[in-house]
């Protein structure tokens, strides 16, 4: 009886989430969504498209969520801005938007072909902001209504700040009044430029100051967030699955893991995610923010309260409280160790493979070895 009661209570402790994502160009947004969909404590109330061609990205989200078996989740179209057609790798190998083609550019891999045949009328959940084909159409009223009716929700930002900026234009106290908790992927502690914050630094600063509970996950901790495979891993005498998290994911049976596998191949076909052929993922920036947002295993990473300003290129610059533009917020500065980062990656791979949250500890290792057993 006690065990049943414990399990029942666990299923009722869901936390309401809104995810604001620019999913449609790169895989990390989808990895983050896959992790959020796999966590039974995450009650994903609404997914909001952001970043440039939001009409198209809303369609991409609808198809992906359908493939994951979650077409019950509501979607809101964010505000539209023009999409750059080209990307150019910077000195760190990260792809940056380019207005015109220059040597070294690749085509911006928005999943146009992948989503073009998806019939939006087949989506079971509500899709806000698609009543018109006009670029000015959006569904942010639905976001505002949900925030006003659901205090203490978590708002995860996996893109730029335009949607939050427009909501603040309409209601400057919306997030603080409703005690919204923000977890934001963006900014850099050590480099000069970061993509998400640099796209809209003005609204980024407003976003960081609009709530009393803001945690930023900059790019530095995310550089450890890649799933890797190991050749002949299964033949090792006592393989540690944490060293082959990509194999764990690929052996998954859930609809979520299979949806991710198809999406990886679709992006690889555009030429920007060829790492899939090497048995690894790209850097999963947004997945780290998604993990921090769940509040699980806080012992794996370091959080620091800081006062800082944000440069026009997205750098987080330490400041004093009296400095102009200074903002107080929390930052995930690093993992406590490389082992902790491996724990996160393995947990993520196993959860997506199973389509549900898995327990931590030795049982993960044992369940993985049994999962590798050949079937006839």
From TrEMBL:
Keywords assigned by UniProt, alphabetized: Glycosidase, Hydrolase
Origin species: Helicotheca tamesis
GO MF term (any one): purine nucleosidase activity
Xref: Pfam families: IU_nuc_hydro
Family from the record: Belongs to the IUNH family.
SUPFAM superfamilies reported in the protein's UniProt record: Nucleoside hydrolase (SSF53590)
Residues covered by the Inosine/uridine-preferring nucleoside hydrolase domain: 18-310
GO biological process, one term: purine nucleoside catabolic process
Protein name: Inosine/uridine-preferring nucleoside hydrolase domain-containing protein
Domain of life: Eukaryota
């Amino acid at each position: 009886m006690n065990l049943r009661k414990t399990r029942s209570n666990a299923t009722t402790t869901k936390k309401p989430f809104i995810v604001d994502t620019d999913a449609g160009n790169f895989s990390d947004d989808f990895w983050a969504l896959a992790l959020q969909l796999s966590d039974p404590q995450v009650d994903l109330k609404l997914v909001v498209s952001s970043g440039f061609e939001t009409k198209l990205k809303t369609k991409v989200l609808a198809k992906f969520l359908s493939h994951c078996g979650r077409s019950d989740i509501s979607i809101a179209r964010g505000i539209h801005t023009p999409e750059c057609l080209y990307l150019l790798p910077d000195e760190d190998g990260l792809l940056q938007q380019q207005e015109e083609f220059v040597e070294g550019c690749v085509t911006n891999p928005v999943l146009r072909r992948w989503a073009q045949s998806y019939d939006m009328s087949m989506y079971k959940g509500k899709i806000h902001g698609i009543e018109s084909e006009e670029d000015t159409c959006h569904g942010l009223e639905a976001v505002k209504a949900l925030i006003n009716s659901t205090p203490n929700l978590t708002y995860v930002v996996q893109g730029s700040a335009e949607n939050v900026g427009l909501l603040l234009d309409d209601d400057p106290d919306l997030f603080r009044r409703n005690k919204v908790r923000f977890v934001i992927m963006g900014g850099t502690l050590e480099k000069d430029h970061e993509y998400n914050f640099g796209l809209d630094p003005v609204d980024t600063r407003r976003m960081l100051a609009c709530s009393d509970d803001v945690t930023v996950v900059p790019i530095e901790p995310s550089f450890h967030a890649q799933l890797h495979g190991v050749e002949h891993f299964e033949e090792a005498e006592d393989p540690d699955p944490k060293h082959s998290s990509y194999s764990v994911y690929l052996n998954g049976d859930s609809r979520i893991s299979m949806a991710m596998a198809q999406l990886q191949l679709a992006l690889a076909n555009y030429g920007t995610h060829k790492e899939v052929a090497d048995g690894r993922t790209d850097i999963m920036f947004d997945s780290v923010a998604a993990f921090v947002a769940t509040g699980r295993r806080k012992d794996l990473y370091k959080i620091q309260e800081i006062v800082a300003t944000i440069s026009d290129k997205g750098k987080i610059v330490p400041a004093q409280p009296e400095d102009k533009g200074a903002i107080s917020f929390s930052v995930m500065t690093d993992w406590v160790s490389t082992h902790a980062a491996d724990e996160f990656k393995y947990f993520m791979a196993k959860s997506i493979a199973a389509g549900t949250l898995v327990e931590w500890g030795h049982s993960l290792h044992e369940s993985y070895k049994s999962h590798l057993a050949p079937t006839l």
